[in-house]
Amino acid sequence: MYAVTDNGSYPSEREAVQRLAPLPRNVRETGLAENFLGDLVCKHLHDAGVLDLSKLVERLALTGAVLEEILSFLRKDGRIEVLGQAGGQALRYGLTERGRSAARDALARSGYIGAAPFPVSTYRSLLKLQTIHHGRVTARDMRSAFQGVVLADAMLDQLGVAMNSGRAIMIYGPAGTGKTYISSRLIRLFDEAIWVPHAIAINEAVVEIYDPQVHHVLEDSAQPNRLLLDEGIDRRLVCCKRPILITGGELSMEQLDIRYDAYSRLYQAPLQLKASNGLFIIDDMGRQRMAPAELLNRWIVPMEEKRDFLNLGGGRHCELPFDLILVFSTNLNPLELADEAFLRRIGYKLHFNYLQPQEYERVWRQETERLGVPFDPVLLRYVLQGFYELQGMPLVPCHPRDLLGMALDRQRYLDGSGPLSPQDLEWAWHNYFVQLDLLG
Length: 440
Hints:
Layout: H1 12-20, H2 27-30, H3 34-48, E1 50-52, H4 53-60, H5 64-76, E2 80-85, E3 91-95, H6 97-109, E4 118-119, H7 120-129, H8 139-145, H9 153-165, E5 169-172, H10 179-185, E6 193-197, E7 199-202, E8 205-208, E9 237-241, E10 244-247, E11 259-261, E12 266-268, H11 271-274, E13 278-282, H12 292-297, H13 300-305, E14 307-313, E15 316-321, E16 324-330, H14 334-337, H15 340-346, E17 348-351, H16 357-371, H17 377-391, H18 399-413, H19 422-432
Parallel strand pairs: 4-7, 5-16, 5-17, 8-12, 10-13, 13-16
Antiparallel strand pairs: 1-3, 2-3, 6-9, 7-8, 11-12, 14-15
Helix pairs in contact: 3-5, 3-6, 8-9, 16-18, 17-19, 18-19
């Protein structure tokens, strides 16, 4: 769905989004009240001082026709005035004293100054239209997405089947076995464009959705000139890649509901809403600030009913589709996190384990190529036999990257060059692992 073609166009699904969210030609088609939009324009003018039509179009992501209708309404209401042309070009608009007072009142109610929000009713339909559970992941897709990654075929197939299920996934196993790396790579199965609103309007509350740290913007070259807005997709939507959001031990329960900042008077979307139509990975499960059972219980209804109930405060709630792939990743025994009844709801539990020697060699070879270091089978045998076998250490996927990197750090410090030596690797080994014999 929405895969970008070589010429920058989109297939028929883009047309479906355009039918759902066409460029509004008048205030009624925005799905927002005229007074609401008038207040938002006043806040922009209060923030910027004086603006012409093109600047207002850019700031509010609305059509020129819609802005002209709002400006006419505000002029009749005595809130704005025309201040003449800028350089003989466009008309400029500013607030009257009545308008400044109205802007201050509007800012006291809501600190939001941005693009016009998208109505929540249409947003529900948009989430369902661009669902991440739209298609079928095949074995070929999995091997393409994980090309060059050292991962057993059986595990690759388990992941692929789990992705097709639409259910939550739990990945567990020892630290350093690649759980986070493999999980984050799953987004490669969905090389697609979706549309994300800058913000949504839930009655009078404006909740910001678009987050540049989560949403990677794509160039939507098919959009028309912003001042000739009579066809195309609503400019309140941003064309983005499907999002991937990873959170770890810093996660708190407050981040999973709509948050209101009384100082800024702004509503912030919960993390799972920002990850909608994408991938949400909860890393280091069991290390969060709340009890695992409390966190897992938060997901029972969304996982089973594919809908989430968000609290806006003051007894107000909003129901939205829960459309994402939810992945739990943990170093702990899943039975220590939840009982079997809850784990059944998750569906797929995938165990990541240590490497076999031949798999470790493949990872070692990849890291030497990446670092530009000659592959030396004798040196690798020295590491495997002299360190791992002798000390009974498991073969962990992240070790080659770390050990080779530290050995190169030492070589550069000693102003050396050429192949790494056994002494370089021995130094790296002793600095990488805690030396228990020195703690006694």
